[in-house]
Amino acid sequence: MNRPNPSSRSADRERADRIYYTLAALLGGAVILYFAVVPFVGANLAFHFYLMLWITMASGFNVSSGFSGYMPFGYVAFYGVGAFTTAILVKKLGFPVLLALPFSGLAGLVLALLFAPTLRLSGIYFAIVSLALAYICRLVITNMPEEMTGGSFGIQLGSQAEPVLSFYVMMATMMLALGTILWLSRSRLGKALRAVRDDAEAADMMGVNITRVRLYGWLIAAFFPAVCGGVEAWYTNIVDTETAFNTLITAKTVIYAIAGGLGTVSGPIVGALVMVWLDELIWRQFPLLNLLILGLATVLLVLFLPRGIVGTLLRWRPAWRRYVP
Amino acid sequence: METLVIIGIVNGLIVGGVYALIGMSLTLLYGVLRVVNFAHGEFVIGGSFLAYVLFNTFGIPPLAALPIAAISFFGLGYVAYFLLIPRLARSDDPESMSFLMMYGLSIALAAFMLVLFEADSRSIDYSFTPISMKVGPVYVATARVVALGVTLVVAAGVSAFLFLTLPGKALRAAIMNREAIQIMGVDIVKLSAFAFALATGIAGITGVLVALVFPAFNAFSGPEYAIIGFIVVVLGGLGNPLGALAAGVFYGLAEQLATVFLPQAMAQIVGFALLVGTILVRNAGFGRWRVSR
After folding, report:
1. Cβ distance B252 to B20 under 8 Å?
2. Global confidence as pTM
């Protein structure tokens, strides 16, 4: 019998896990430290707020597309509904903002449950339906009575603005998202999700409850953009359908996530960091050409780096897959 | 009320014709290349802007702009194919990645048109004489009647091409089975490039018609048409050009009649609901790797 010694294999795996978690802790620590000091050193608060927002959004999208294999091109629906939930609760029902935010997340979950039947679809059908559902959400909210959603003027939150506090709330949301995905990538659920993504029938045979696993993945993916929408509404103090349901939000989320590489914890972080910086630089230089360059960047990304930065690195050195979070 | 319904039907046929052409070109693209062209709306609007420039700068009327749009867009499409599509096959999931790439292209093209033409809505200030015609009991703008005529000619022409000529038959064969047609000795790269060029050419023509039929267009009108195109393609069955023609007319009628009976915004929601419902119901029958539980 030429089987490797089981104890040496488990020792090997433990070693890999140790490196994995050390790297994850280092990455997480660096991210926390970096963002935590931003308000103290007087760095650009808005820039870093949006950087965290995009990291969170891209990470949430990663759960859906990287882990579960669904490309929700109407991802903005969750964001917009979350933004309006916070705005309505705060402005019309007098909730304190911090109490309203969890309800935004809840609204995202409810919306995800409503959309759950679309999980039966796959590939391009799912993408198109998701896009159409986002348009429907936008139209429904636009046409709600003006006393509720503020019509085309939107809702102003009034004297609720607390930039620094909302900055830290955004940071907490981001850490929660990253923590969830770190857990997911090593958990039973994460493994089941990937198994279902790669071969649903085989996973079914192995006793994975496909429907339930997909639903859990979908709920996680929907929760974070909804909270992001709420926090952003608080930060900017205004919500309207034009910006809250802007398809560019989906576009940026998808682009940032794919630029980093789907299916890893670090991918969306790296992708968002690189692309948001790039976006900022371009925007400063050529404000008019910003959209044009964003679009071209997407095309080039798909053509030349379809697996993203981290994904390409892992393809080049497959052995690192065990260590890189 | 009766007149309103008749107006709804006439408008539905005219608008539906435009949707049918968009749907037909989209479905050809998807059928032959497996590319989900989200940028198709921008191709169409590009045609509208071309007609706008031709008329305002050179005084060329929209009808004469039709062949110019068709030929120039055909050429652009042929070049674009080689720039964009062959590399796509290298990714893990070419179909979803094609959607993402075209999404990016859509943003880029819209931004490009925004830089060229600014954000204002444009329309072509050209009128036929007489300015309107009596169709049955109602008056319809001549431009729209002409547009309907052009739609019929183009639809009939493309259908005849697809069903009566050898290259057309090759295209339909490629839709049915991409592998088998290569065994039969068809150069699939050439055929694919031709399909892409044909689809963009039709989009260019459609753009000129959009300028005739709809009151105005701007750099960001594209996605609206792309989404309607998707609805039509899905209703007609993916990769079925004749189905797309019928579905386009059906959708145009449904949309225009819905505006008679429902408020404007509700009519739009009906369209999207139609799309979601169709996909959910249709796909229940023949999903690809879906596991039913």
Report:
1. yes
2. 0.86
Tens-level pLDDT at each residue, chain B (293 residues): 788 888 888 989 999 999 999 999 999 998 888 888 989 999 999 999 999 999 999 988 888 999 999 999 999 999 999 999 988 877 777 877 888 899 899 999 999 999 898 888 888 887 777 788 887 778 888 888 889 999 999 999 999 999 999 999 999 998 888 888 888 888 889 999 999 999 999 999 999 999 988 888 888 888 889 988 988 888 888 788 888 999 999 999 988 888 888 877 777 788 788 888 888 877 543 333 333 32
Kindly state the DSSP code that residue B89 receives in the 8-state scheme.
T
- What number is the ipTM of this complex? 0.82
DSSP for B14-27 reads HHHHHHHHHHHHHH
Residue B133 sits in a domain of what CATH number?
A: 1.10.3470
Please give the structure tokens belonging to residue A30.
């660096």
Does the beta carbon of B287 lie under 8 angstroms from any beta carbon of chain A? yes
CATH of A23-31+45-322, one of 2.60.120, 1.10.10, 1.10.3470, 1.20.58: 1.10.3470
Confirm or reject contact between A281 and chain B (CB < 8 A). no
Which of A64, A114, A118, A125 should be substituted to probe chain B, the one whose Cβ sees the most B Cβ atoms within 10 Å? A125
Total domains in chain B come to 1
Residue B153 belongs to a domain: yes
User: Which residues 211-240 in chain A show a CB within 8 A of chain B?
Assistant: 211
Q: Is residue B292 part of a domain?
A: no
d(CA B208, CA B124): 10
